[in-house]
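dumping these here so i dont lose them again. two proteins, back to back, each one seq then structure tokens. dont judge the mess
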Amino acid sequence: MLKIIGYDGEEIETMNIDDIDNEYYNVIWVDCYDPSDEELLQLSKNIGIEIEELKIGLDELEVPRVEEEDEYYLIIYKAPLFEEDITTTSFGIFIKDNIILTIHIDKINSIGKIYSLLKTKKPKTFLDRGKGFFLYSLLNQITISYSRIMLNLDDEIDRLEEVLLQHQDKNITTEILQLRKTLVYFHKALVSNKDVLSILKRKYLPITTQDDREHIEDLYYDTLQLIDMETTYRELLVSMMDMGISLENIRMNQIMKILTMITALFAIPMWITGIYGMNFEYMPLLNNPFGFWIIFGITIMSIIFVLYIFSIEKWIK
């Protein structure tokens, strides 16, 4: 699917791929989402970039980087991906002359957000300051998306910690492991993005101005903070897993303690009744009219004695 917007310095216009005019528009943004072979062919023909090069941006496992070709620049970047689980995906940004092409196989919410902002607000906010500032705005929106997810993860970790202290079940452990998996994806993506931003902020590329590089430098430090947050959250989740295992061991020890107390309480009575359950003709108190009550009293006293021992040892509170 292709979405094409052209900005002439005053307003934006939606156009078709065959209507691209490099001379009339100051900035042209082409967003290419999960394109068909025919759309890729049209895109390659009208923009002048080989199909095989365009397919690089469609590889969701492509490593983030900046490539400087003779006629265009290629930037591979990682964005959060919202599916059943929160992961990350790679997408490509091609910049040639006044054309900015974003190409991706997965639906990226941050790109959709930029498109919505362009359609609902004044386009001058993003496009009047050139393609370098638009590039910054796009990368900034992705960074904001990471930040929002991190804040939500903070609340989720607090919730899991509270639930973990109350009780533990397999669902809690599964949720913790899933969050750790998400943070591992984020760590790889953010570190790779940091390297891309490091190049963009210090390398004097024709596609960016000095102001653009200063904005990108701010993004670089924001990404560093996100990496620190992600590392802290992963350490918290590891601590929560250790705490969960410790709490489970404590609960198991409590259960074993209770079972041991029950066994000890009935050990002497079972021993006494076991002896008198033998088929012998001559046994103490066997023919005594008060024999049952004497044995019963001894049994009760043994139970009371064991309970007294437990109270001394503070097994019973």
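---- next one ----
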Amino acid sequence: MIKKIDLPYPLDALEPYYSKETLKVHYETLYTGYVENTNKTLEKLQKARQNNDYSNIKCLEKDLSFYGSGAILHQLFFENMGIPIPTNPSICLMEQINKDFGSYEKFKNQFTETSKAVEASRLGSVSVGSKI
């Protein structure tokens, strides 16, 4: 089971970039729903394992992927956002962005469009790893 985290700042802390009302919807409605539905799905999976009944496994795994990713991505968002502090990418990161994307603007455009297009939460994440 997963546990809902407490919001680490007041609902209006991200203004003017993220409104209090929007953050409230994401935390109190969407994130709560993702956590609750992830836990319901985990319970159903446990019951399926106990009964050795995998007739509905495709649906359960799809639900776990959908709700679980929504919960995880919202938690990452809440834990990594805070009172606005102006920052810029480091020189090293900017060089890599320019190498991989051509420019910072092209990176932002791709990241924005990708985040809009993904299923479920519409949240994207940037991670660094080995080349695919």
